Amino acid sequence: MRGIITAGILALVGSIACAQQDPQYTQYMFDRMSVNPAVAGSTGNICATALLRQQWTGFDGAPKTGLINLQAPITKINSGLGLTAYFDKLGQEKSTIVRLHYAYHLKVGSQSTLSAGVYAGLSGRALEGRWVAIDDVASDNAIPGAGRSANGFDLGAGLYFKSPQLWLGISSTQLPETELKDVSIQNKRHYYVQAGYDWAIGGDRKYILQPSALLKSDANSTQVDLSALFLYDEMLWIGASYRTEDAIAPMIGYQHKFPKGDSMVRIGYSYDVTTSELKNYSSGSHEVMLSYCFKIVKPVVNEIYRHPRFL
Predict the structure, then answer these.
(1) From the CB of residue 86, how many other CB atoms can be counted at a distance below 10 Å?
(2) Is 155:130 a contact under the CB 8 Å cutoff?
(3) What is d(CA 156, CA 162) in angstroms, rounded to the nearest whole number?
(4) Half-sphere exposure of 101 (CA within 13 A, CB side)
(5) Which of 80, 94, 211, 220 has the least C-beta neighbours within 10 A?
(6) pLDDT tens, 74-110?
(7) Phi, psi angles (nearest 5°) of residue 183
(8) Where do the domains of the chain lie?
(9) What is the pTM of this model?
């Protein structure tokens, strides 16, 4: 009985995945670059971020997703570089996406930046060889055979504005809508709008409220994430997120700035409480975020100049 329920749920998930193929994370505010290349290098630091997500625990074949982001500024040419690697497993399907990002940063006023970026990469899908169809489908060419895989070109672009308090981005991924014929999968173009604000309560930065939003669409279906984090003393945060027609997620995290202030480590955790029909079969979703940022600062060199009067 459990196998029948699982198969039905995964069939539903598969139909949803045709519309939303990019990774989905509750802690999206710490992962702005994977869907918007213009974010690369915008923090001015070298950063590495990892996100691990176990979705819909409680039944076999539930989605398991991992994401690694690396980014760095190139200050001499007002630019930034980034690399994203994304791994996902859903039932018998495995997905791997690798994206190389480039962004150009333009100063707007004294403290704000407007960036434009592009990425190029590869999108790969594979089907494992362990599934068996109930009916005879050998004559149906539209159904891919088990053990097959395919790769295709991936391209995306975006714009990103950042000030000390506000960030706002608009982007699109999988622009070519590459068809992966060997696995009968058509990549779908995605559109994103993301924004956030840092509101210092009481005039200092000991208490900061950080509301944010992420809109994602494939032009057929649209989903919105609304979140708010409360940051205490730039060290500890708690908050919650709401994803339309899907989940409510409490979040907690900790960040530590090292004494010189040139590097910082973050760790965060979120738990999705499912609100859709899947709540009858799932124990929710777990997600862990880990990030480390640092800046290379050249040491100050004291130069001595000799004057003829003091030889």
Answers:
(1) 20
(2) no
(3) 20
(4) 36
(5) 220
(6) 999 999 999 999 999 887 888 999 999 999 999 998 8
(7) -120, 10
(8) 2-296
(9) 0.84
